[in-house]
Amino acid sequence: MITVVSDTHGQSTHRLSDQSLTAVRTADLVVHAGDFITESVLTAFESESTRFVGVAGNSDTFPIQKRLPATRTVEHDGIRIAIAHGHNHTKTSRSLFARQQHADLLVVGHSHTPMVRSTDEYTLLNPGSHAEPRGNRPAYATLEATDDGCVGRLCELDGTVFKTFTVST
Questions:
Q1: What is the fold of 2-168?
Q2: Residue 154: how many CB atoms within 10 A of its CB?
Q3: Domain coordinates of the chain in residue numbers?
Q4: Are 105 and 80 in contact (CB under 8 A)?
Q5: CA distance linking residue 64 with residue 164, whole number of Å
Q6: 3 state SS of 110
Q7: Which of 33, 78, 90, 166 is 20 to 30 A removed from 62 (C-alpha atoms)?
Q8: Phi-psi bin for 149: left (phi > 0), alpha (psi -120 to 50), beta?
Q9: What is the reported pLDDT for 89?
Q10: Quick one: CA dihedral 44, 46, 52, 53, positive or negative?
């Protein structure tokens, strides 16, 4: 399973709770789309995760920006995932980035709005924010591999699924 989070905006801890914490602890891969804020928050995520990948966001301190790239691409269970915080990306540049990376899934954050959108070429996922929803529902996402991609779920912190989607490979 893959767990996807973003926009923690914490000072000292990962700010996970309920099922979101369990989802991070039990995931084979945790993807964070930026805005940890401090290095101790990044370290807290790394310590809770079996395998962790993240990118720096626009609110991240310099030590995080030194440790994490602005964008990255990973593969897991046959799914190619491109990751960017999203603050420097327009709709067009996000699309170009996803296509350049041959991504099945593009993960972004920044807006704090949980959403998913599919195109003919890739699926765009913003997991929202589990800790600073800013008028949106607190959320995170999970992905389970299938024979031809994965099934995704946008979840509330207690694990209640409010949107399901598929990602094709």
A1: Purple Acid Phosphatase; chain A, domain 2 (3.60.21)
A2: 23
A3: 2-168
A4: yes
A5: 32
A6: coil
A7: 90
A8: left
A9: 77
A10: positive
pLDDT at 163 over 90: yes
Q: How many CA atoms lie within 13 A of 84 on its CB side?
A: 19
140 or 169, which is more confident? 140
- What would the pLDDT profile of 44-58 be if each residue is shown by its tens digit? 999 999 999 999 999
Query: Of 112, 115, 105, which Cα lies nearest the Cα of 151?
Result: 105
Tell me the CA distances in angstroms from 133 to 5, 7, 44, 94, one per residue in order.
Answer: 12, 8, 20, 22
Please enumerate in sequence order all residues whose Cβ is within 8 A of that of 123, keeping only pairs 6 or more positions apart, or say none: 104, 105, 106, 116, 117, 152, 165, 166, 167, 168
CA angle 42, 124, 151 (to 5 degrees): 90
Determine the pLDDT at residue 87: 87
Task: Specify the pLDDT at position 91.
Answer: 80
Query: pLDDT tens, 89-142?
Result: 778 889 999 999 999 999 999 999 999 999 999 999 999 999 999 999 999 999
**Would you tell me how many other CB atoms lie within 10 Å of the CB of residue 90?**
9
CA gap 169, 151 in Å, rounded: 11
Q: How far apart are the first and last CA of the chain?
A: 16
